[in-house]
Amino acid sequence: MGKGRSKELIQSRNTKLLRRYYELTEIDRLRFDDTIRKLSNEEFFISETRIIEIIQRFYEKNDYIDS
């Protein structure tokens, strides 16, 4: 068995993170830097750098989130 989180758990986390990012920036109109800080320190407890990487990958792939 491999080390670390399963790919399914990571994908689930990333999907929830992206939904929350959208909600904070587009609906609540929170600034980008405040959104990243909130996601990092209050909601997902991963680094701000990692959150930005997840968001960038999402937009690079022109992906979408299933409802």
Give your account of this protein's structure.
The protein is mainly alpha-helical and 67 residues long. The chain has one domain. Helix content is 70%, strand content 0%. It has three helices and no strands. Helix 1 packs across helix 2. The longest helix is centred in the N-terminal third of the chain and has 21 residues. The model has no long low-confidence stretch (mean pLDDT 91).
Features of the shown structure:
mainly alpha, single chain
Sequence-ordered SSE layout with sheet pairings:
Elements (H helix, E strand, L loop, with lengths): L6 H21 L4 H13 L3 H13 L7
Helix pairs in contact: 1-2
Brief synopsis:
By secondary structure, this protein is an all-alpha fold. The protein has three helices and no strands.
Which regions contain 5 or more consecutive residues with pLDDT less than 50? none
Terminal-residue CA separation: 31 Å
Query: What order do the SSEs take from the amino end to the carboxyl end, as H and E?
Result: HHH
Radius of gyration, in angstroms, nearest whole number: 12 Å
Major sheet details: none
Q: How many separate structural domains? A: 1
Shape: globular
- The overall average pLDDT, rounded, is 91
What class do helices, strands and sheet pairing give? mainly alpha
Percent in helix: over 70%
